[in-house]
Amino acid sequence: MADESTLHPSHKRSCMCRPLNIPRTKPTNEVYSIMKDFNVTDDDLKKYMKLLMADLHKGLAKATHAKSIVKCYPTYIQDLPSGQEVGRYLALDLGGTNFRVIMVDLQKNHFEMTSRTFVIPNEKMLGSGKDLFDHVAACLHLFIMEQKLNDECLPLGFTYSFPLIQKAIDRGIIERWTKGFKCDDIIGEDVVKVLQEALVRKGINKNVIVKAVINDTAGTLIACAWKSPYCKVGLIVGTGTNACYVEKQQNAEMFDGANHGSGLVLINCEWGAFGDDGCLNYLRKPEDIDIDKASINPGKQLHEKMISGMYMGELVRLLILKCVKGGAIFGGKSSSELNQKDKFLTKYVSDIESEKLGTYDKSKAILESLGLKNITETDFQNVRYICECVSRRAAFMCSAGLATLIKKTEEKRVTVGIDGSVYRYHPHFHNLMMEKMKQLVTPGVVFDLMLSEDGSGRGAALTAASAS
Ligand code: GLC
């Protein structure tokens, strides 16, 4: 069992043997029938598991990899940390609208971290690769100055959370961008080289040596493996969603590194793309199709668009509007704010669902901030029910995905290390996953879900430590 201190807060309160208390709101009949086909059944999830398992095999095998949708990239990480790593390391965490620079001081079975978060302006997310990485280098430079590290030379682990065709632990080719980033001029380039060139331009290449590049899922798995030897799967449910797991090298046909002894390699599934060949169309609803059409990468990351934080609030907004149009909510009247794309934040879903059933203070504040007036108690209940439907579907799909990966590891006991804003802040996501996974994981296999304490950054530092 995982160390209690690292378990998800809602996990600590719960007993794994009795059903967890997950509140459910009662909607009106009209809203219930509009939302009805948004519920996924266990049969849907079993079908999903078969499809995902088939896709994992396609991604792993040489003969089918090129055409595969779930890419299953080998990461060149073969060993999980021992807890004995020591020293001072830097980490960069690039993967969402915020970007972090971290300094980690690893001592035996103990660590200290200092970090600073920087915003990435939208124009840099959509501009040239050079501009994006110059911004990254400028933030790193600022951090080095602030922490008075200018006379030092520290190894750096780079958490780069986008599809990357890895060629070595410190080399990876940018395959494409996801989650609102689009710096397409550097697709096909080695991301470590691109970073190093920016460090040279900023004059800090003597302070930093890039030792490893890793995906955030891998960083999370490694950070949790530092505490639990059973950690074999990593999951992110944040701006995007993705998972990684420990695979036998003999099954990872695209892995061309030398075996360092463990015979294992971490696989970055890139499961956000699952369904891009249409195999999840049986689960996709008109709102999923609308979200995809309005995105900067239509036709891509369809699984991610049904689950992750970048899209969850928008899904709820579209569904509320559908109910408004049918006259089932707000007396059939919307507001100009509610009519605008992305105005219903994913954070609102967590806020609304964290209220005690029957109380609506937060809901009232949120809906009024969206310009809605004369909201009735029934409206509050209906909005909450819509949020519940969307977050449940996401949690259940993640559960089915994890049950598939746990099966693929062939282990009898697996801890899943998890990070990401949706998992971390949604009040019931963890419990929903526990419940559903109990039904889907192969009987006899023991699992638990561990919240990563700042997963990816520390994981990158640990990987830099192993690589040094
Ligand atoms: C997107 C990225 C993936 C990352 C995930 C979570 O799916 O493509 O690399 O792990 O988001 O951040």
Describe the fold and architecture.
It is built from 17 helices and 13 strands. With 468 residues, the protein is an alpha/beta fold. The protein folds into 2 domains: 12-70 and 275-397, 3-Layer(aba) Sandwich (Hexokinase, domain 1), CATH 3.40.367.20; 73-268 and 455-467, ATPase, nucleotide binding domain (Nucleotidyltransferase, domain 5, 2-Layer Sandwich). It has helices spanning 9-13, 29-35, 42-60, 62-65, 122-125, 129-146, 191-202, 216-225, 286-293, 302-307, 309-325, 346-353, 361-369, 377-409, 421-425, 429-440, 455-467, and strands at residues 73-74, 87-94, 98-107, 110-119, 154-160, 164-168, 171-174, 208-214, 231-237, 241-248, 264-268, 413-419, 446-451. The two termini are 31 Å apart. The strands form 3 sheets. A 6-stranded mixed sheet has the order 1-11-10-9-12-13, sandwiched between helices. Residues 1-18 have low confidence and may be disordered. Alpha-D-glucopyranose is lined by residues 95, 161-163, 178-179, 215-217, 236, 238, 240-242, 270, 272, 304.
What's the arrangement of secondary structure elements?
Layout: H1 9-13, H2 29-35, H3 42-60, H4 62-65, E1 73-74, E2 87-94, E3 98-107, E4 110-119, H5 122-125, H6 129-146, E5 154-160, E6 164-168, E7 171-174, H7 191-202, E8 208-214, H8 216-225, E9 231-237, E10 241-248, E11 264-268, H9 286-293, H10 302-307, H11 309-325, H12 346-353, H13 361-369, H14 377-409, E12 413-419, H15 421-425, H16 429-440, E13 446-451, H17 455-467
Parallel strand pairs: 2-5, 5-8, 9-12, 12-13
Antiparallel strand pairs: 1-11, 2-3, 3-4, 6-7, 9-10, 10-11
